[in-house]
Design goal:
Strand content: 15-25%
Structural class: alpha+beta
Strand order of the largest sheet: 1-2-3
Number of strands: 3
Largest sheet: 3 strands, mixed
Shape: elongated
Number of domains: 2
Radius of gyration: 23 Å
Number of helices: 4
Order of helices and strands: EHHEEHH
Distance between the termini: 53 Å
Oligomer: single chain
Helix content: 55-70%
């Protein structure tokens, strides 16, 4: 879905239309100043989803880098370490 392009005056004069477009159609709106793109407007839900997806991609890229550089350990060993850490936290809480 392509972004909608609107001049900055529309942000001031037609905010409710822009907000409705962002929420109902989940379409970003690009605000221009003097004919050049300046700001992107999107619904808050889409913003949070985009941030979550970006964080996941960063995590996956780091994991891939670890694999490429040989920074890996056997899966069972990893799960054992996680289990041990969780049990230690639980015993500290008691």
């Amino acid at each position: 879905m392509d972004a909608i392009i609107r001049p900055s005056s529309d942000l001031r004069n037609h905010y409710s239309e822009i907000s409705k477009e962002c929420h109902e159609n989940r379409t970003p709106v690009i605000i221009t100043v003097n004919g050049r793109g300046d700001t992107a407007v999107m619904g808050l839900q889409d913003y949070y989803q985009m941030r979550s997806e970006l964080e996941l991609l960063r995590t996956l890229a780091e994991a891939e880098e670890d694999v490429v550089n040989g920074r890996v350990s056997p899966m069972q060993e990893t799960f054992d370490d996680i289990r041990k850490s969780l049990l230690e936290r639980k015993s500290d809480e008691v």
